[in-house]
Amino acid sequence: MARSSTKRDYYEVLGVSRTCSDDDIKKSYRRLALQYHPDRNKAPEATERFKEATEAYQILSDADKRSMYDRYGHSAFDRGQGVGSVDFSNFVGLSIED
User: Fold this and answer.
1) Distance (Å, rounded) from C-alpha 1 to C-alpha 22?
2) How far apart (Å, rounded) are the C-alpha atoms in residues 7 and 52?
3) 38-68 residue pLDDT tens
């Protein structure tokens, strides 16, 4: 499984196991969202932690995205680096006969 070295594991971010239920993901996200919401927590790192938890929740709460993440890690969602992505800019101006 490929992982971006700059992002933490989404399961680690939410403090849940890889085999946790959807309900566990939801409960953990809600707890973290309340703890780190910028309107409630003025600590310098709170906004970043809130964004990180929200990003993790958006992926892990969706069954299809969670499956992709489990298989490919962050690279499944990195722009231009995801599974099945093709950079068509290399093909501009080429004809089929070339």
Assistant:
1) 22
2) 9
3) 999 999 899 999 999 999 999 999 999 999 9
On the question of pLDDT at 3 being above 70, the answer is no
- All domains of the chain, ordered by start, with CATH? 10-73 (1.10.287.110)
CB 72 within 8 A of CB 1: yes
Q: Which residue has the tokens 């992505």?
A: 85
- pLDDT of 80 reads 55
SS (H, E, C) the chain: CCCCCCCCCHHHHHCCCCCCCHHHHHHHHHHHHHHHCCCCCCCCCHHHHHHHHHHHHHHHCCHHHHHHHHHHHHHHCCCCCCCCCCCHHHHCCCCCCC
Judged against a pLDDT cut of 90, whether residue 37 lies above it is answered with yes
